[in-house]
Amino acid sequence: TMASEAEKTFQRFAVLGDSSSSGAEINNKNFSKLCQDCGITDGKTVTSADVDTVFNKVKAKDAGTITFQQFTEAMKELGQKRFKEKSPDQGLEDIYKLMEGKNPATTGGFYQTATVGAVDWHTDTSKYTGSHKEHLNDSGKGKGIITGFKETTDNSGYGRDHKGAGT
Fold first, then answer.
1. CATH 1.10.760.10 for the 2-99 domain, yes or no
2. Which of 10, 53, 76, 129 sits a CA distance of 20 to 30 A from 28?
3. How far apart are CA 160 and CA 164, in angstroms?
4. Segment 45-59, tens digit of pLDDT
């Protein structure tokens, strides 16, 4: 079933960098990575902040991890954001489709983050490789549509407000 495929993906991410994990529960960091690597987080309708919020909402009060059951609840909620026009169940199916057969991406130094300290792995642009980098400025926030606007401003040396323009 879709769910059992998704559960396999869940387990692969759950044990990532956590040798004590049985794969039955996933921590916040790996949950975020799963959402990132499977394309559930798209930076627009679903951001890493949304992912954190949902994780904290579904987990037990003092727990640092969530079960697959709780994960399903979280994904229903994220599915509602990501696939706005669909029913919760349909959104969940679509998220499971995204998850199917996915493995944690090992590029970008994810395994070193334990020693990096306070830098969060998904806002540290040095962890991004290749095409992801284009979309980020140094703070890790998306640049959006103003990418590269500096180059196009005005090469004449006179900006619009420049006092000496035309003199």
1. no
2. 129
3. 10
4. 999 999 999 999 999
